[in-house]
Amino acid sequence: MNIDIANIQILDALNSLAAGLFLLCAFAMIATRQVKGCLRLFIGQSLFLAASALLLGLQHGSWHLYGVALVNVLSKAVLIPFILHVTMPREVYTRREINQVLNIPISLLIALVLTILAYYFTIPVQQAIDPQYRGHNLPIGFAGLLLGVYTLTVRREAVPLLLGLLAIENGAFFAGIAIAHDLPVLVELAIATDGLIVVFIVGVLIRGVQKQIGTTDVGALATLKEEVVE
Amino acid sequence: MSIIAILAIPLLAAILSFLPWRRFPSAVTFFACLAVLVLTIRVAIQASCGVPVVVAPKWIAVDGLSALILLLIAFVGTTAALYSLGYMAKTCHEPKKLRLYYANYNLFIFSMLAIPVLVEPTLVWIAVGLTTVCSAMLVSFENTRGALEAAWKYVVLSLMGAAIALLGFLMLFAALQAAGGGTDTWEGLIAAAPRMHAILLKTAFVLILVGLGTKVGLVPMHTWLPDAHSQAPSPVCALLSGIETTAVLYVILRLFPIMKAVPDFHAGTWAIAFGLISTGTAVLLLLRVRDYKRMFAFSTVEHMGIILFAAGLGSATAHYGAFYQAFSHTLTKSFCFFTAGALIISTGTREIASIKGLIRNSPVAGVCLLLSGLAISGAPPFAVFLGEFTIFKAGLAEGRYLEIILLAVFVAIGFFAIMWHINRMVFTTDKGDPPQKIRLPASCLVVLVISSLLVLAFGLYVPAFLQDLLRLSAAAIGR
Amino acid sequence: MSQRIIFNLLQFLVVLVFAPLITGVINRLKEIVQSKRGPSIFQPYRDLWKLFHKDEVISEESSWIFRATPYVVFSAPLFVTLLIPVLTTYPLFFAFMADMVGGGFVLALGGFFAGLAAVDTANPYGAMGASRTRMVGFLAEPVFIIVFFTVSFTAGSTIPYIVQKHWVSSPAAFLEPSHILLIAAFFMLILAEKGRIPVDNPSGHFELAMIEESKALEYSGKSAALMKWGGQMKMFVLLSIFLNVLVTPWGLAADISTGNVLLAIPLVLFKMFLFVLVLAVIESSLAKLRLFRISEFLGSAFVASVAAMILRLFAL
User: Fold this and answer.
1) C or N: which end of chain A has fewer Cβ atoms within 10 Å?
2) Do A209 and B148 touch (CB under 8 A)?
3) Which of C175, C184, C296 has its CB closest to that of A17?
4) Is the minimum CB–CB distance between B51 and chain A shorter than 8 Å?
5) CA C256 to chain centre
């Protein structure tokens, strides 16, 4: 009995560790300039998501969380980088993004404010679900979601934008595995593989954009407006 | 059984579209959509008696509301497929690209058909994501810089909205589990709603409203809509504007009876607020458009706002009006975009300022443009007018004078803006030589005639079978 | 009682004697990572010996600050040694004289005097280096403060010994997400304070690009030896705080026995060696940041530390 409680405590602590590193990856994705660095951070974030799924599976004894962890590792840490490397032209990865819409220190401060907001909004929700549950999954997942949305607004380079999109899904899923751990297997697998389809489609689009305008700086695509463009 | 067929036929057609015979993809698409339409009418007649058609109790079932949406999807799918026959043959001359177009078209129809048919909310989310994925290539079909920009914004914003909505759906599921379990279907959620935690439901509702609202085109998440709905080829625009936004709005509307169980949360107020903001912004931007397809796209945002507004009003008449508005909007908007396609074929440009004297140069396109403009901006005796009138009546009966006055002002501004632009295009004199008359393809003409007749007919007479469906739909979200 | 005095002196001696060794190991490791042989790890000792036996040249234009600074820089880290757990987990004599904030102030005193002395000689490179060090310093201030706040909030006290006890006692407290973020933030702080890559290149010779090194450029003979040694001891002290309190709070002597305390010395050195390994890898794989990017670097550290604070506050 005591060993069980100690085990659960250690699992909880490790889960919190994975959550903390997940959040760190989300912050670093905003602060990094290199496309390759962004990709590596995304892989790291997905691995922490899989680790959290594994730990939660151990805690609740549900085997399909293990499956979720495995699918996540396969699709997000292995297949998606592979697809990106194959579909993107080689030079996309040597790019550094020099001008974001806001500079990095301000982006980091805004990211901080978003994290505080995420905590503020999700703590009442978490208490409604399970007053005993003190884990960080729901707030950090929601924070990851908000940080991903923020990345979408400030980045101009295509591959980091795509990774921001996938980071939003990571965040939503991270929160989801903690609160909804009895979903039908079909649904969970479908959500986990959703990322693959997204990458495929957006990859094809980025390729098309690169062919048309010669660069993947999609922030420059801003011609469809109501104002008179002289 | 027919429901499975409804889903399977477009998939089959998608695979068959890859066969390299000349006219085969377009023909197979059209006949597939026709078959789906026939089957859908059968299912709708069955569902209009009040008993839902159930195939697998926890996964696939069609009640009155689903049947209505299904009918709309099938109808627009068929007319757009027929229109594509002529339009794509005229504008695109690479057979390989055309095959890809029709394959994507069928997949898009399939994903849209899946939305009303599935009853497990998370599966519906997957279907919504699938619609974005399948239509990405369709939006960027013309491969110009504008088309790519539109496709990029569309895909990125839609997927972002889908990810936000995912969290909302997961919270809904978590609420169901915390309330002691139950079947995870729309019906099951409504039944379990009184036991679910209020704060979970509220947060889930807001997340889903914001997330899926991005796909519907609610302001301020609408920035992709004018671009995507104007840069795509016209039959695709008809599908996107006509029915896809309505189908996603249907998903949001399914949440309303669940929210009714939450004691002090007025989902209706959120809906009214978002609806008014969307309508207002859309009509104000309508005054400044320079491209007539963008004009019709903004009109879509306006009508989505009106439908959401009506759903938020709460009374049975208002809900009836909302669904009638959805129905009439689908018919009319697809007609508008078919007209736009005819205009592009006749004049070769999308700018309003470059088109003059349409009534003389291409009379068919001119008359259709006039009719579609009048119809979509809410002039009697067209269908949209009837819907808006019902909504106004319901709102006044409830006593919401300020909101109705605002809505009426917005609709009036929209009417003025659209008719001003169309007037410039159709009636002004063209000083130069009249351009060469280009014949519209036969299938496009057929579709235009059918759509215009339907738009006129449904403004004057609503068949009983449709009335039953509408009443069932109103009841479905009004509980 | 006398045992404690002896242990205090032992702590002093450990810091004094082993600080140059750590620097020697860092330099050797960096060279090995770059496939060179590198100097012997005892080279810094030989350098100090050589400098102590050389003549000093002092500019006539300089004031008493220039002459007094080497002594301040040398003694500041030694004072801080009295406050932090270097060998033992229980507080020694002067442990309650100042807490972490006080220790930070004393370390900053050394930096302050070094900066003033750099400006004192009218050597342009000195002034440039001093102003740049101040910039890095003020960017690092908020990180320091937030880290100290979070650490003391977590452990319930600002005395390093009590903080260390908090983290050595329960693995659950050790694995908390705020702890990891704090470690990340503090690590970036150490890189900034001690002028390692990516903030500054400690082995560069180009005065226009120097940040930390140019403060000691003007010194010669005995003063140079004191400045060098003081810098090395500051590194040792910062590492002690980092490793013994935050990262690996184990391995210190838990009871008053000479054997345990003597055993703690090689354990502490081993922990520092592991850290130095990580440091050498990082230094050899990153490039020095451009000056205006240092604010991004320290901004990330700030954000990590505030995130740690939020996670800690909201976990209640």
Assistant:
1) C
2) yes
3) C175
4) no
5) 27
> What digits encode the pLDDT tens for the residues A15-48?
888 888 898 899 888 888 888 888 889 999 999 9
Nearest CB to A116: which of C176, C179, C310? C310
- H runs (alpha helix) in chain C: 2-33, 43-52, 64-81, 100-120, 124-155, 160-169, 171-174, 177-193, 221-240, 258-285, 294-314
Question: Taking Cα atoms as reference points, which of B336, B257, B267, B260 lies closest to residue B298?
Answer: B336
Do B244 and B228 touch, CB atoms closer than 8 A?
no
- Chain A residues whose beta carbon lies within 8 Å of the beta carbon of residue B133: 197-198, 201
Give mean pLDDT, residues C310-316: 73
A139 close to C (CB below 8 A) = yes
The interface predicted TM-score of the complex, written ipTM, equals: 0.88
In contact, B227 and B291? CB cutoff 8 Å: no
Query: A12 and C304 in contact by Cβ < 8 A?
Result: no
**Out of A16, A28, A112, whose CB is closest to C176?**
A16
Helix residue ranges per DSSP H, B217-264? 224-231, 234-239, 245-253, 256-259
A143-174 pLDDT, tens digit per residue, is 999 999 998 888 888 888 888 889 998 898 88
CB atoms within 10 A of CB B183: 15
Residue A67, min C-alpha distance to chain C (Å): 25
CB-CB contact of B253 with B116 (8 Å): no
Task: Give me the residue label for tokens 């908090």.
Answer: C166
pTM of this prediction exceeds 0.80: yes
Which tokens hold the place of C229? 């040694």
Four-point Cα dihedral A75, A78, A84, A86, nearest 10: -120
* Yes or no, beta carbons of A20 and C176 under 8 Å apart: yes
Pairwise CA distance, residues B209 & B231, whole Å: 26
- Alpha-carbon distance B70 to B116, whole Å? 6
